[in-house]
Amino acid sequence: MILLSAAESRHLDRLSVENYGIESYALMRRAGETVADLTLRRWPGVMGAGAMVVAGKGNNGGDGLVAARKLMQAGARVRVALLARAGDLRGDAARACADFIAAGGAVTEIADADGMAEFFDRRIGDRPAVVIDAIFGTGLNAPVRGLARGVIEAVTATQAPVVAVDIASGVNADSGAVMDAAITARLTVTFGYAKYGHASYPGAAHTGELVIAEIGFAPPAIDDIAPRGRLIEFADAAALVTPRATASHKGTYGHLLIIAGSRGKGGAAILASRGALRTGAGLVTAVIPEAAAAVVAAGQPELMTEAMPAHDGHFATNAAAIERLDLLVAGKSALVVGPGIGVNEDTHEIIHWLVHGGVLLNRPAVIDADALNLVAAIGPGMLRTARGPIVLTPHPGEMARLLRIDTEAVNANRIDAARRLVDLTGAGVLLKGARTVIATPDGAIAINSSGNPGMATPGMGDVLSGIVGALLGQGLAARSALILGAFMHGHAADRIAARNGPVGYLAGELADEIPAAIRALLGQGVSISPVAGAK
Questions:
Q1: Rounded Cα–Cα distance for residues 498 and 506 (Å)
Q2: Strands 437-439, 445-448: parallel, antiparallel or unpaired by DSSP?
Q3: DSSP letter (8 states) at residue 244
Q4: With a threshold of 0.90, does the pTM exceed it?
Q5: Whether the bond into 202 is cis, omega within 30 of 0
Q6: How far is CA 302 from CA 70, 101, 276, 281, 469, in A?
Q7: Please, which of 14, 15, 61, 465 could form a disulfide with 221 given CB 3.0 to 4.6 Å?
Q8: Are 297 and 326 in contact (CB under 8 A)?
Q9: What is the rounded average pLDDT of the residues 157-179?
Q10: Are residues 327 and 257 in contact, defined by beta-carbon separation less than 8 angstroms?
Q11: What is the distance between the alpha carbons of residues 525 and 172, in angstroms, rounded to a whole number?
């Protein structure tokens, strides 16, 4: 699924009109009429209780006024609140308003808080079947204040289901951020293509069911724009999986080195290694401190282990240890560094060796977990000195430390956070969480659709780092490894949740489900579609 920014959405409209001869009002008319048709289909009660349309002064408001006219012509009682003077409307929005009035409709102009209170107070008791939100659309880029905020709060107070035109008002179309206040829609009807704000949280929580309506944009226009945003769905991941050649062997599929674990955290090394093995890595070697070596070796017999000197349960990284690490990394296809290693002076030396010791000149690496916290303490800009492909897989707390902001700020604008870390480090970034965000140095953004709340349990991130490391070791480019790894990880969880229930499955069980997920992606099994409502 293509995702557009607000600017790309405007460009699509402009190219269709100026370069390909599509009439702009025809686009508005089809948009508004589609909203009306879907409203009538979802809420047939609108024919009795009626609909309330809240329209802004821009083209989004024009779409709402077209919807109001179509509903009225279908026999529904329609009340329209216009957050402007009708005489101030311009272009297609003015034409839509004139057509609505000419068809017998009445518009209540709301210019201030008093007008808002009067309009809504008189109608709270006369609850409409549905409210159509046509206030802002995709153009919002500033906090919602004053009259608009009061109207959003008043719409919420009606407790009626809301149909959002293009995007819920108050949600930033480029990021999904809530601009201080936002409508929570039951249904969102967007036009042509979905927007980033529909797919990424917190905006996704305000979208409800998403319907993508075709309204007549010129097909070549999207090729002219060449958008870089995608929502990763089953078919996208499946396109990255290929059957294995019959004449192949374990050396064909890479040798992954995983530097992980410490006393009490040997499980992190086991889970990362299991994720890699289940993803088909030809060979996996785990480098762990002696304090955790026995646990890790016993936990996964297919895994090769290399025990390193330990200091207080963690890696002891003297000159001899670093020299041994250099020997161990020689010939390996990819690295995973960080799960469970802890944060101290010794592990600081591992990161210094990794970045400045030439380790990343010719091989990809996944930096995860405690290694990310070490990078945050040293300075993320250090990673720009590495020439090999690096991917970072932070959860929101780790991202906050890397960017030196708080976790709430990360979660409020996940796409921007991922982009900022790419700019800072030059690495590919996978920001974990609901609707995982993937950002890469080429400017592309991908949002993962798979996964479910049952994944909120220990060790899931360790398994993911092993999955991505195995894919890198098998020769996938960094962006492809992140996209396939994120989807496969979530899809395995969706399969377990569908079979066993939504809560209580473990990270190790998810790792063990990966072969079945791969089988489904290859078209050899039943797929589980995690995307609800996008049509």
A1: 14
A2: antiparallel
A3: P
A4: yes
A5: yes
A6: 66, 74, 11, 11, 17
A7: 15
A8: no
A9: 96
A10: no
A11: 38
Closest CA relative to residue 271, chosen from 516, 73, 531, 462: 462
In terms of Cβ atoms closer than 10 Å to its own Cβ (0-12, 13-18, 19+), residue 78 is buried
Please give the order of strands across the beta sheet that includes 162-165.
107-109, 78-82, 51-55, 130-134, 162-165, 187-191, 209-213
Q: How far apart are the first and last CA of the chain?
A: 10
Of the listed ranges 114-123, 203-212, 473-482, 517-526, the one predicted with least confidence = 114-123
Kind of pairing between the strands at 51-55 and 130-134: parallel
Q: Report the amino acid identity of residue 41.
A: R
Rounded-to-integer distance, Cα 69 and Cα 101, Å: 8
Within 10 Å of residue 354's Cβ, how many Cβ atoms?
26
Closest to 162 (Cα-Cα) out of 51, 80, 59: 51
List for the chain the helix, strand, coil content (%; round to 5): 50, 15, 35
Within 8 A by CB and 6+ apart from 335, the residues are: 256, 257, 258, 259, 329, 354, 359, 363, 364, 365, 366, 469
Amino acid at 158: T
Asked whether the beta carbons of 260 and 269 are under 8 A apart, the reply is yes
What is the reported pLDDT for 385? Answer: 84
Domain annotation for the chain: domains and CATH numbers: 2-227 (3.40.50.10260), 235-243+254-521 (3.40.1190.20)
Chain centroid, CA 97 distance in Å: 37
Structure tokens belonging to residue 491: 């899809």
Taking residue 114's Cβ as centre, other Cβ atoms within 10 Å add up to: 9
CB 233: neighbour CB atoms within 10 A? 17
Collapsed DSSP state (helix, strand, coil) of residue 535: coil
**pLDDT of 472:** 97
CA 354 – CA 471 distance, rounded (Å): 20
Say if strands 428-431 and 187-191 run parallel, antiparallel, or are unpaired: unpaired
For residue 422, the surrounding DSSP H or E stretch is helix 414-425
